[in-house]
Structures are given as structure tokens and as C-alpha cells.
Amino acid sequence: MVLMLSNLLLMPLATASVSSEAALRNEFLQAERQIGSLKAEQAQKVLEKFADYPLQPYLQQRRLQQVLTADERIAAFLQQYQKTPMDWPLRKPWLLDLARRQKAATYLANYNGSNDAELECHALRFKLADKNADTKALWPEVTRLWVVGKSQPKACDPLFAAWRKAGQQTAELVWQRIRVSAEGGDPGLIPYLKTQLPADQQYLADMYLRARQNPSVISGAKFFPLKKVNERDVLAYGLKRLIWREPNQALALWQKFVNDPYFTEAQRLDVKRQFAIALASKGEEQAADWFKQLPPELIDNMLAHWQVSHALAQLDWPKVQQIIEAFPADIAKDSSWRYWLARAYEQQGQADKAKPLFETLALQRHFYGFMAAAKLGLPPSLAHAPVTVSEDELKTLKLHPAVRRAQEWLALGRLTEARREWNHLQDTSDEQQKLVSAKLAHQLQWYERAIFSLADVGYWDDVELRFPLAYQDEITQSAAKVDIESGWAMAIARRESSFMADANSPVGARGLMQLMPATAREIAKKPVQLTQLYNPVINIDYGTDYLNYLRKRNDGNLLMATAAYNAGYSRVKQWIPKTHALPADVWVETIPYRETRDYVKAVMAYYQIYNIRLNTPTDVFKPLTIMQIGVVVE
User: Fold this and answer.
1) Rounded distance between C-alpha atoms, residue 615 and residue 602, angstroms
2) Which residues have C-beta within 8 Å of that of residue 579, sequence separation ≥ 6?
3) String of b and e for 205-227 (b: at least 16 CB within 10 Å)?
4) Is residue 581 helix, strand or coil?
5) Cα end-to-end span (Å), the chain
6) Which of 291, 354, 485, 555 could, after both became Cys, cross-link 346 (CB 3.0–4.6 A)?
7) Catalytic residue from among 496, 522, 589, 634
């Protein structure tokens, strides 16, 4: 039973010799709930009582959040716990209260910059109010806050009014804000921004909004009156959207304006690039002609992918070779392009050129390395190199205040707070300390933090830490029930959540295997409470069942089933060639969605790794060397 706070105040601080750790934690939770409403004397007794408890500063923070006028005490607390997870939840409301009280000097002394527009606006207003302010240096900061694709907080309105009164707002800045609002921002801003333009330019805002809502309108005979150069901004914007929806319409309109003298070379290249990518993703043969029109200096990773992917989809191996050999050195060195260059050599009978490339790749631990090893008949290489940390380093880290606080939050089941403390530790650690923290997290069976800590420092070769045998018993049992390999299920869980049982995606996927609630209901054939999906056993059971369902729907093809787990069964069926078959590796490389393409590569590589870690003899990649996907023409 949780102790009432009145009784808690009369008791000595719970210790291991007096009460259990569980009782102590219950006392803390009770204090956390009530300290904000206590009288000052009572609150001070509680703080003294928990003086040696790792989470005592959180009680201080909770108390100070209720007394935001205690400026000196708050400033001292924030100085002591600067940049810890206790900083911002107190600093922001305090700064807002200081702004309300017009405490300019205190505000500016304790505002150390942020991405919070409201706080930035208050800071700039206080700075501009100083009679000695260097307005020439401050106005560009205000401009930066104004030229964004969204509405800013009301606290910014007086700042923007002063900026506008000082003659800083120009028609070109308004036009810039219209562009960023249309191209990925909030198009609902455009009608307001239209009123900020000179009367003879306001029609441009209407054009942008109409092109945003329906890019086909730019094909209308009277859409472009050709009165202003800025119309070409709308034209380029509309063409880049239209090519994805109505390619033929976009191509026809391009011919109409291709020689327009006011259409700048930069705009032309921007449109050509988008046309090339869109047409390649749709499998259109003419995409190759558009790639030819782009100068070499424009080649980046995205263009490189779509050039190669387009040639691969047509199984044009000489073209694949030609494209990759023309890549700049910094792009050509990527493992993916070395693999495809080797494949191009192989398909053209140039085994002497292909073999050295495959041999080098086969020593590496990734999708292409495993494919290369399978082609050469070699065992896959894990290239395992464990991190090197000492016992003394681990002992020292365990005493770090952030670690002690994180472990207490973990014990309380407060995973969000625990992660914030661990992230703070990462932010304040050097490279070696991050490696030590990864090792410690693994020892604590906090596998996600070990994975992320290694990623943070870019250490990829400790296979045991990066691919832990988390939930091994649960996954093995559930996989066996539906007759799928546990290595595949474990690979899915590793990719989906890094073994975070409480993971929750922006689209609503939940738990270890990131199941959508509707999918869980369909699999369970009964109502499923959302909280159940955070239970690892339940989540794994439904997840493995769903994998089995997708495997069956895809005639046992694990590549397609894996893609379907990410993108959905119906979408994957649309990606299957209808007129010819593609080798499995080519099919993966030509998946039009980058997210799914990368997902399939990662899961299959993880599957191979987990099979090795689980001592499963199956070579995941060997079947892929002969697998064909699509209609096989006899």
C-alpha cells in the first residue's frame, strides 16, 4: 500500500535495512504527486527526506514548477542541472512567466537559445527594446523567424509588426514565404500572405495555391498570363508535381515552355531532375533521355539510385556498367554500386572483373556483402569486432548521476524519463564513454539503448550488442507455433523497434513488432486493447501470426512477405513485373519506395545475422541468387 504523505513525513528515509526498495519507490511516487501542492515547510521536509535518493532533483523540479516567481531558486537549480532532462520542462514555463512579468534582464540571462519560436520572439523583443540595440544585426534574425512555412506563435506578432514598420518586409520575402508554404509547409498560409503582396502580384499567390491543390490546372490555356517572372516559380513547382500524377500532361506542357527566355537554367535543371526521377520510378523508358540532360555535377545519391535502378529494371547490364563507371569517386565507392558493377561484369561474361569485387564485398556484413558471399559460395561474414571497455570504466559509469537516475526510472517503469536521462548521458559523453554506455545498457538488458548508443558513435561492428538475442524465448515459441523461422521474426522486431516494447510510430503502429491496431484485430479475430500491443508476448504472438499470413499470401516468398510487412500486401503486388521476371536482387533494388527498399535489405541482412547467432544452418541469401520475381516467360 502506498503511504500517505502525512505519514511519510514522520518516517525516516527508507533504506535497504529499513524498508524494501519497492517501498522507497512507492514513497517517491507519492511525494512526486503531492509536492507541488504542499506548503513550503512541508515541501522542504520532503526534499530533505529524499536527499540521497537519485531522483530527488525531480522533486525539486516539480516543486519549482509550481512557484515560477522564485527566480533566484529556479536560476540556481537550472544552473546545477543545465541541459539535463530536468532543465527544459522548468526553463520554458519559467521563461514564459518572466516574459509575462517583463523581466527582460533575467530572461536574457537565462535564455540560452532554442528552436522554440515563441521564446526566440520574446528574446528578440527584449533585445530590440534596449535603446543600445544593434537593430541591423537583429533584423535578419527576425526575418529568419518570419520566412517559414507555418504560422508562428502570437508572441511573435508584435515583433513582426516592428520589423514590418522598420521596412524590413519586402515583396521578395513574402514570395519566399509563399514558396516554402506551398512546397512542404502549410498552404493555408497563402491566402494571408497574398494580402502582403503588392496588388499587381497577388494573383501569383492564387496561382501557387491552385497548383498546390491540383497541379493539372497549370496546363490550362489561360493559366499563365506571363506578366511576371515569378510565374516561372509556379510553373516549375507545378511541373514537378504534375509529372508524378499526369506524366503525359507534364511532358506536353514542358514542350510549350522549354524555350521560354524567363525560365532560368536553374529552374530547368530542377524540373529535369524531377522528371527523370519520376519517370524512372514509373518504369518509363524515356527516363534515360532525361538523365542524359543532367550535367555530371548534379549527380547525388538519389539520382545515382534511379539511374541504376532504371537500367536494372530493363536488365540492360552494359548500361548499368556505363552509368556506374561514370559516377564521381565519392559516389562510386559505395558498396551498393560496387555490387552492381560486379553484377554487370558477371552478366556480360567478365568474371575476371566481377570476382575481385565480389570477394571484397563478401567480407562485409550487409545486404550486398551477404549477396556477394552467396554468389561465391562462401559463408557469410559477420565481421564481428566487440567494443573494448574495462571493468573500471563500467564501474565508474554506473556511479554517474544520469545512469543512477535512468536506472531508478527503469525500476519505476517510467521508460520515457529513463530514455531522456540516457540521451542526456550520450549528449555529454565522449566516444569512449558512449561505447562504455552501450556495453552497460546491454548488461542491463536495455537493448535499444545499446543499439542506439553504438549508432550514435558510428560503431557498427559489435554484432552481439547491435543484434542482441532479445526476447529469444518468446519469439522462438511464437515462431514455432506458425512454422516460421525465429531468425526472420527477430529480424523484423529488430528493424521495427530495436526491441522497444513500448514503441509507438507516428502512424499508430505499436509495440515490439510495430503492429497496427487494425492488423492486430484482424489477426486475433476479436477486439484488441491498445495496451495489449505493448505486452511483448502478445505483440510477438500477433506479429509472427501476421508474418505467417503474409508468407502464405506471397506463396512462401519471404522477400515479398517482408516488403508487404512494411508497405502492405496490395502495394507489393503492384510492384511485381507483369511481362518478365527479375532476379531477386534486381527486384529489391527497383522497389519504388525508398523506405520499403531499405527495409527489405535491412531485414534480410538481419535475418542472416540472427540465423548465425541462433546457430540456424539456413543460408538466407543462397536462394536469392537464383530466385526470380515476376512472370517467367518460357
Assistant:
1) 20
2) 630, 631, 633
3) bebbbbbbeebbebbeeebbeee
4) strand
5) 74
6) 354
7) 496
Cα separation, 452 vs 231, in Å, equals 47
DSSP string, 313-327: HTT-HHHHHHHHHTS
- pLDDT for the residue numbered 19: 53
590: CB partners within 8 A, 6+ apart: 309, 312, 313, 575, 582
User: Do 504 and 516 form a contact (C-beta atoms < 8 A)?
Assistant: no
| C-alpha closest to that of 341 among 366, 358, 363, 359 | 358
Cα dihedral: 608, 613, 617, 621 (round 10): 10
496 is catalytic: yes
Question: Taking all residues of the chain, what is their mean pLDDT, rounded to a whole number?
Answer: 94
CA–centroid distance for 559 within its chain: 24
Among 403, 433, 430, 437, which residue's Cα sits nearest to residue 418?
A: 403
pLDDT tens digit sequence for 584-614: 999 999 999 999 999 999 999 999 999 999 9
Per-residue pLDDT reduced to its tens digit, 124-141? 999 999 989 999 999 999
Q: Taking a C-beta distance cutoff of 8 angstroms, is the pair 49, 9 a contact?
A: yes
Digit-coded pLDDT (tens) for 170-198: 999 999 999 999 988 999 999 999 999 99
Q: What is the mean pLDDT of residues 546-573?
A: 97
β-bridge pairing 581-583 and 628-630? antiparallel
